[in-house]
Amino acid sequence: MTEGNRHIAFICSKGNLDMAYPALVMGWAALGNGVDVTIFFTFWGLDLINKHRVDHLELPPVANTSMKMNMMGIPGNLGIPNLVGVLPGMTALATKLMKDKMKALGVPPVREYLQMLVDGGAKLYACKMTVDMMGLTMDDFVEGVQGIVTASDFIDMTEGAQIIFI
Amino acid sequence: MPTRVIAGKTVEVDAEGFMVNPNEWNEAIAIELAKEEGIEELTPEHWKVINFCRQSAGATGKAPTLRTITAGTGISTKELFALFPKGPAKKVARIAGLGKPEGCV
After folding, report:
1. Confidence at residue B8, expressed as pLDDT on a 0 to 100 scale
2. Which end of chain B is more exposed for a tag (fewer CB within 10 A), N or C?
3. Is the CB of B87 less than 8 angstroms away from the CB of A32?
4. Is B105 part of the contact surface with chain A (CB cutoff 8 Å)?
């Protein structure tokens, strides 16, 4: 980390597939522009760095009013009825649709994206309280996670940084 | 559009100092722009990246993203950040005489 350099810290608190990407995309853009990046994973956000979970992030279609049928090629603003969304397999279907769209755009999967960020110099940390609550250890995390830190540590290491909560 | 003299040649640049016309670029300009970006010497690896960017932009009309560069050159993300420290996305494009890269990955 360079003294006086712009620094952006992301707090990732969500583990849904669609909520994995904001920090990855913005963090990568920041690194590309010479900005220091720290990412703190807390609560469900820990799934993004959990090596057993990172390839299985999902997107549920229930109560997601922005997810319309046009993702499946049906024109217009027709939503996915919640009653249909609860059927077995609908979460898997919505997840597959999103993954296919991302792939078509050339967006890497979350695991690969994280590795790019680590290689570009981003610092990744896991939230101690959540780690304790979920019974996880460093062995559960993907390579490149620097450590398990407390909220207080995070506040210390992000002095002067711009903080984005996701 | 403002102009400036780089390595003895007058070229058009935009407000952020990116060259506007890739055809005005030459290797001497790259060497001077690299120095402005804090890169004292362009090694063969630097040139590999720069040449790839110019080819890619020639084919697509826009500066490649970092991921396109790593995929196209075989140079790893780590190496790319070491070759062009502190912001390779903009630095590479600027040194290669291209506009800012479009696209997010």
Report:
1. 84
2. N
3. yes
4. yes
Q: Please give the tally of structural domains in chain B.
A: 1
Mutation for testing the B interface, residue in A101, A116, A117 having most B CBs under 10 Å: A116
pLDDT in tens, A104-150: 888 899 999 999 999 999 999 999 999 999 999 999 999 999 999 99
Is B25 a member of any domain?
yes
User: What is the predicted pLDDT for the residue at A71?
Assistant: 79
- A41-64: average pLDDT: 93
Opening angle at CA A163, ends A159 and A107, nearest 5: 130
Domain of residue A151, CATH code = 3.40.1260.10
Considering only the beta carbons, identify the residue of B67, B81, B89 that sits closest to A121.
B81
Bridge-partner residues for A149, per DSSP? A127
How large is the ipTM?
A: 0.86
Does B90 contact chain A (CB < 8 Å)? Answer: yes
Write the DSSP assignment of A65-98 as a string of letters: TT-BGGGGT--SS-B--HHHHTSTTHHHHHHHHH
**Of the candidates B78, B81, B104, which has its C-beta nearest A29's C-beta?**
B104
> Would you call B104 a catalytic residue per the annotation?
yes
Average pLDDT over every residue of A27-44: 95
Q: Which domain holds residue A135?
A: 7-56+108-165
Q: 3-class SS at A151? A: helix
